[in-house]
Amino acid sequence: MGTNKFLSLQEYNYNLPKQLIAQSPMEPRDHSKLLVLDINKGLLEDRRFFDLPYYLTAGDVLVFNDTRVMPARIFGTTENGATIELLLLRKVHKDMWRALVKPGAKMRTGDRFSIGNNELMCKVKSVEHDGTRIVSLSKKLNLMDEGVLPLPPYITQELNDPERYQTIYSSVAKSVAAPTAGLHFTEQLLADLKKIGVNIIFVTLHIGWGTFRPIVSDNIYDHAMESEDFQLSKVAAKTINEAKNDGRRVISVGTTGVRLLESISSSCDPQNVGTIAHGLGSTELFITPGHRFKIVDGLVSNFHLPRSTLLLLVSAFVGKKNLFRAYEHAIENKYRFYSFGDAMLML
């Protein structure tokens, strides 16, 4: 995707000590650290996640992505006995999937392997330009029996309870990664937020490879996002539109909610900026610095990998100076990073 604009990916790099990559979730969920950023003043405050209600007020709308991670990681065996690992990204046909395969170099078009006691055969139909494979299965795959929960590659410690990589409100399992900002919430914290008059609504964006696929071009604007499916209910759209009309804040729990809301807003009537319509759809929106946010007024998010699309989204929301001041503060104060790490509140 060519463009005349240029923004170097290297401007969004930072060095993170390996020991700050969280290997296990915090217990209880809401006891993780919370770095609060006042976007306009650039002020930072160190709190705990259970302090979140102190920063919200009656009438605020808190938007949660209720997608659930599917057990998309499966293992197979080749004819010569070698182990093959697949991460199923998206179903493209009845019994055909787009997948990441490891080791990929050994899985070429036409190669076959078995899954689960040799009862299910899998064949590589094609190798895509991005390195993924289209694989066909001999019959319907029951992921609940054959699959395991995929964890990011930087988490090397075994997860004893798979539910700790799911939000407590997760619903339909169609994602390959968790909306990790939501992992900090407990039933008690949700009850506390409702008690002070915060409106809690749920939207759905199924997280695919596009969210975490690395940017390989130095020019950020040459990167294209993968399509991800979403659903916005009538109730959620009505609640958000009423809040925008009243001048109340809409705060997204996670970057995926931001992409969903900003995508829908961008597709609406330009005469009604700041309004959204309910429905089903998909988005390829890549939010980069300079994006004009139409719906989202606040953001709860974990700390993201350097040179990632998620880091660029946060930079677009808070500004590059604020972003790196916050990340430097977090590193100096030993915040935990990435999926099982601590969080930021940006208002």
Structure description:
The chain is of the alpha/beta class. It has helices spanning 143-146, 187-195, 209-212, 234-246, 255-266, 309-318, 320-332; strands at 33-38, 43-48, 61-65, 68-69, 73-78, 83-93, 96-102, 112-115, 120-127, 133-137, 173-175, 199-205, 228-232, 250-253, 279-283, 298-302, 343-346. It folds into 2 domains: 9-69 and 159-346, QueA-like, CATH 3.40.1780.10; 73-146, Thrombin, subunit H (Beta Barrel). The strands form 3 sheets. A 9-stranded mixed beta sheet has the order 2-1-17-16-14-3-12-13-15. Strands 5-6-7-10-9-8 form a 6-stranded antiparallel barrel. The longest helix has 13 residues, at 234-246. The protein starts with 32 loop residues before the first strand and ends with a strand. The relative contact order is 0.21.
